[in-house]
């Protein structure tokens, strides 16, 4: 039952449902009733919302504030009444593409420096002591410019994961995306002001980057259809490859046409547009999205925890840190991430330097050439992700091991070949480097897919901590590479390739031994039942005792 809508200034009729009898006892006479399909909100004469009848929640604030909140953060019932069949049953794919572009933008903002530094004129040989960096960076400054991003991302990782769990990725990702955009726009100014100002701006870029993998985990856990989980994961983690594939050639063209500051201005402007669009269009839950109909919603809900009592769902939101950290399969995923991103950071942070300084490609050609390895890896990730979802004759654990081994061992073999090649046939070097990068794309059927499957509703934490792999290696790799390549010769780079190959072999062996193919026991409802009762008792939820909680569970 629900009340009929009334105009402002009218009184609420006595036909109010019995469960709402308390409203009749209030001293202030309601002046308006705002109706949705499943809930009624009563607004008093002074514009203060007193009661949301059907849901039983109390909402405080003026009427216009609540109307605005309802339009931006609608309830499930409100979203259903506003359903618009704009994308049919494919809204989740539109969101996937939008989030992929946003993830790519944040990573591109960081990578833009690695190409822009090549464009800077090194004629003045200035250093940080002069405060003028426009004429070039020393190796020490380059190392810190990359490592400060990793340090900031490491610092931001835990609070960002907590925020994602509390308020969802819509607010968190929008805010951090805008932070990344603004800080990128300020990079040219900070470079002119001095090295430490520039480091502060790079730290802001790094802090924003901490959201990327928690966003992937949260989105896939809430929005993906279980038969398409591999496709969703492979598409979103491919931002690591898509970013350099776009940034390198675009930066090369911008440098030639407008000089190096234009690289940062273009990246920052695109980021602003993308994240404003994301903030307006995304919803934390498919149930609350006005473009998601019942057909798509039912499909997304298969295999997820649904129709659970509110109090139990609240208990399930609490991350079981202890059991997660005691699970060897989860550590296998995180260790594999370190091996993967050791190679990724070596290739994508330093491939412009290798191509221009060692192989002798000109600047405009370096941009296009640098885009080939990540582009091949991007395509491989999409293909492997789709193939992995369609293979049903072997277990998930076996698929994880096979795809991860193809990626890690295959890439390591070609890096070893590259280490023993000379630099006389630079086109052949480019081909070998491209094959090595392309094979690494098979990780979407390996550890990248294993994370969400093993952790299910806690994917934002487990997959979020995969970002530790990229940040830790981003912190270490620049110092190692710059320490080994003082003169940028092929012989020096051979050691870089061999060390990278060794790391990949070792980390893949660990992954293959400990990974499992089924969701961990701490993802099940049964695992949380005793804890849920205790939590509800401790919080003294009104009108609930242990017996009622047990009946609900």
UniProtKB/TrEMBL annotation:
Organism: Caenorhabditis bovis
A single GO cellular-component term on record: membrane
Main location: membrane
Domain Major facilitator superfamily (MFS) profile: 100-519
Name of the protein in question: Major facilitator superfamily (MFS) profile domain-containing protein
Entry keyword annotation includes Iron: no
Membrane topology designation: Multi-pass membrane protein
Residue ranges of the region described as Disordered: 1-27
Record SUPFAM superfamilies: MFS general substrate transporter
GO MF terms held by the record: transmembrane transporter activity
Residue intervals passing through the bilayer: 93-123, 143-164, 171-189, 195-219, 231-250, 262-281, 329-351, 371-388, 400-422, 428-448, 460-481, 493-515
Biased composition (Basic and acidic residues): 12-25
InterPro entries the UniProt entry points to: MFS, MFS_dom, MFS_trans_sf
Keywords associated with the record: Membrane, Transmembrane, Transmembrane helix
